[in-house]
């Protein structure tokens, strides 16, 4: 038979890290040395993680592409498959295939100011961007991170945010819908943070999170003269094959798994304001 | 239009020899047969299994067979289901996982099809739809699907030129029929006359199968008669407003007609099941009860199911309006960007098999009107 693109390869759980009550990270490594040696990925791309007898789920890769042998997947326990995957321990063997999709425009971002906007619980796709820039700080201009959460306890990687705040040429603005005494930052919506920052005209924006939040942020950005082609979004849809074949993730003309998940706003603008696609 | 390849004449009683030649070369023949009051593709060995003198009559939500007393085997126009399930199986195993004694999974490919299929009966709309499925499943934009590819590779196609049109046909307006163009992808195409067939081979395989029959050239009278019959099929009562509705539909996303359609649509998915170009499938892991192995299977899915747009607790297309809009805008708009043409080839099955009889050509005509007018103004 010709290559079967549906079939996963075997991978080992090298480490399991609990990030918050429902969020955990699996560090995975392909067992086959040839697969491991040939594997390359870019920030924003994802893998299909398979749990024996249960199913597959699309998970973005959050570790740095400079080491393509150890692949970190940060996962929130939300459904049948992720519930099962959350039970895995170091040493367990699972199925893994990828990488899939188009990642963030890291080359295009070089030399520019980068604004990263995320919402929801530990938005893994953009964490890969933050990590990538932090590792290569001189190649990029100012890094601004806007992160919104519902509740203070939803902020995973608080220690990392507190570290990033201290980095040179980096600004971190956090917002929680509801505050508590442990929350020294803004209480309210992410869009309300826009007034606290200044955007240069050579800013490139990368965001991911609930679509409502992204719509509100796009409106703010356009008002602030950021051009459509400088705004990038990571989209989320039902993904089953990850090959642009099963049809679930179609977004107008695009298959999110193959043509995305990262799109420029210009590319998806015609459908972005309509629900149901 | 004249035949661009020299047509031959196949006497009616020699069609069996053509079948025999195909079977000798290892082909399993699928042809039209009457099952439960409908014409479907099923395996056959002999011409005696073909539906003789059977005409199909279609209307929105209506399908009836009648016997017209003729000797013809191909007086019907449209099989209830196209050839899609013979290539893109309704359910199939993509890979299998087994567990070793430590509980670790191992992955293996299932045995792939080595079956050589020959299908007789495809119409121009079906051939066009097959080319669309080829574009999707054999696309260079992603890895070609090995299961579809294995069946497609050995497929032998005998196309039949339509000599009637039914009420749901609109292939003339989509530009896909009713006549099978020599570049349409058949090995052999035939037009049925009382005494036999005017037959054309378009491929070396087609010529190889017909060569032992030592056929004579078709006479001018036979070719003229075939052309006359074929002309009958151009009398179609339905049409799409345009072959490219892309901009029209993407600009009509808030049209009030979507609500009107939704009030009739049952969201049953019959249209996507009989649509010869619809390609969506879902995947499931089917584990053995003893836990020793698990198969990853795919199964036809439909954008009319709530699960199609489900992700972590949200159903994006939570009502029928959004689902029908997804289907129609994908078929007639998104396809242009994805594969350079509309995804509809005018076979009309979605009209025939829609329980409330929604006629997508009528809906397209309303959506095509400027100013958001609905059918009752």
| Residue share in β-strands of chain B | 15-25%
Elements of chain B, N to C (H/E): EHEEEEHEEEHHEHEEHEHHHHEEEEHHH
Rounded to the nearest angstrom, the distance between the terminal CA atoms of chain A is 36 Å
Shape of chain A: globular
Overall helicity of chain B:
25-40%
Chains forming the largest contact = A-B, 42 and 60 residues
Strand order across the largest sheet of chain A: 10-9-8-7-11-12-15
Kindly report the average pLDDT value of chain A: 93
Q: What is the C-alpha radius of gyration of chain B, as a whole number of Å?
A: 22 Å
Q: What overall form of chain B do the CA principal axes indicate? A: globular
Helix content of chain A: 10-25%
| Helix count, DSSP H or I runs of 4 or more residues of chain A | 8
Class based on secondary structure composition and strand pairing of chain A: alpha/beta
In DSSP terms, counting alpha (H) and pi (I) runs of 4 or more, how many helices of chain B?
A: 13
With strands numbered from the N-terminus, the spatial order across the biggest sheet of chain B is: 3-2-8-9-10-11-1-12
| Structural class estimated from helices and strands of chain B | alpha+beta
Features:
heterodimer; A: 277 residues; alpha/beta; 7-stranded mixed sheet; 8 helices; 30% strand; B: 377 residues; alpha+beta; 8-stranded mixed sheet; 4-stranded antiparallel sheet; 13 helices
Briefly characterize the structure.
Chain A has 277 residues and is of the alpha/beta class. Helices cover 22% and strands 30% of the residues of chain A. Chain B is an alpha+beta fold.
Question: How would you describe this structure to a colleague?
Answer:
The complex is a heterodimer of chains A (277) and B (377). Chain A has helices at residues 33-38, 80-85, 106-109, 124-135, 158-166, 211-223, 256-259, 265-272; strands at 9-18, 23-30, 46-51, 55-60, 71-76, 93-100, 113-119, 143-149, 170-176, 186-187, 203-208, 231-234, 250-251, 254-255, 262-264. With 277 residues, chain A is of the alpha/beta class. Chain A has a 7-stranded mixed beta sheet with strand order 10-9-8-7-11-12-15, with helices on both faces. Chain A has a 6-stranded antiparallel beta sheet with strand order 4-3-6-1-2-5. Chain A starts with 8 loop residues before the first strand and ends in a 5-residue tail after the last helix. The mean pLDDT of chain A is 93. With 377 residues, chain B is an alpha+beta fold. Chain B is 29% helix and 23% strand. Chain B has 13 helices and 16 strands. Chain B has an 8-stranded mixed beta sheet, with helices on both faces. A 4-stranded antiparallel beta sheet of chain B has the order 7-6-14-13, with no helix packed on it. Chain B is globular. The mean pLDDT of chain B is 94. The interface between A and B is large, with 42 and 60 residues.
